[in-house]
Amino acid sequence: MYFSEGAPIGYIWWAMPTRLRAAGMPVDEVAALTALLTLPWALKFLWAPAVDRLRGPRWGFRAWITVAQIAMGLTLLPLAVMPLDSLVDIATWLLLAHAVSAATQDVAIDALAIRSVAEPDRGRTTGWMQGGMLVGRAIFGGLALAAERWIGADAVVAILIACIWSTLAVLWLSPHATADSDTTPDHEPPLGLTLLAVLNRRSTWIGLGIALTAGAGFEAAGGLMGPYLLDRAADQKSIGVFFAVYVVGAMIVGGLAGGWVADRLGHRRLVALSVIAIVACLLLLVGADTLLHARGTTLMAFAIPLYLCIGSLTASSYAMFMDLSDPTIGGTQFSAFMGATNLCEVWAIAVAGRIAAGPGYGAAFLVAAAASLSALVLLPLLPARTGRLRETTR
Q1: The pTM is what?
Q2: What is the pLDDT of residues 90-119, one digit of tens each?
Q3: pLDDT above 70: residue 177
Q4: 3-class secondary structure per residue, 193-204
Q5: In 3D, which of 356, 266, 392, 381 has the Cα closest to residue 320?
Q6: Is the CB of residue 220 less than 8 Å from the CB of residue 364?
Q7: What does pLDDT average to over the chain?
Q8: Between the CA of residue 323 and those of 10, 109, 211, what are the distances in Å?
Q9: Could you tell me the residue ranges of all domains in the chain?
Q10: Which fold has domain 2-379?
Q11: Torsion-angle region of residue 387: left (phi > 0), alpha (psi -120 to 50) or beta?
């Protein structure tokens, strides 16, 4: 399921910004478009309550996922059968509709995961979930840049749609234990009362603050990495290979290793260590650029440790947000946390893009890294234990 979500994200967030920058679009405009297409993931908590509660014996999380994935393919279909030039007036709307569908799919998948995965296994599980998403990103975010030269952009989009729809077979062949978590159990409290209780929990607001800030450094660097390398004398093909092989490989290794360590060391502790490590990696990258005047593949080598740490932060923070979410409204509460992480991406990329267009990339990365450190102040404020609605309110 995460592969089917990661594939279109890779194409829209990784491949397209590089193509647009190569075509001459200013870096701040590329950043603004990328931020716009991220908004549905940032706002998905607004319709997540419908996914949580509009379920029954014949309509569960898997039905929500199915409808969302069908819509994901249909909104991309015009891009596969018509030249992009002829769709310029509606392309943004098609991509936004696709993003809304994909964000809805994300809500349902995460809600099902929260109900199905025990807390001691969440770090490793989120590591594998991120692995599936990153494989999709690698194929359609990195390799797509090279593949378009031989088969054309239309064919790449057609293959992307086929991948999204084919994973429906995996969805409906899932184990019975997963299916048992698919529908609404009896005697759950009313949604309104549950939402009010969750809003009154200290951990909810602290978690949102962490989600809005912890990833600022890596979101800014990741969102601008394609244009950054292009402006530092790397060619488009090399950038595509870098994203498809080295970036994805580093993030998968970091996610799997980080998830394993998080389940043993503690989800919150590894979040803090990962934030510190990401800031250190950004300092090294900026130093190599500004002091050593490194270019092209040398900067790629300096960026690889950053993506290892990004994988670790992603796995550990997602596991921590699962711990903070009440399973009775897991889709809504976890979506709020995930929406905040995506909103972090929106503001971090938008701000970094403007700074990069002025003082430069180094200043943009350093400002975003400084914002990430604010999460370290919030982490110790989280209560020791959370779960169903048993936590002491404010």
Answers
A1: 0.74
A2: 777 887 888 889 888 888 888 888 877 777
A3: no
A4: HHHHHHHCCHHH
A5: 266
A6: yes
A7: 80
A8: 28, 16, 14
A9: 2-379
A10: Growth Hormone; Chain: A; (1.20.1250)
A11: left
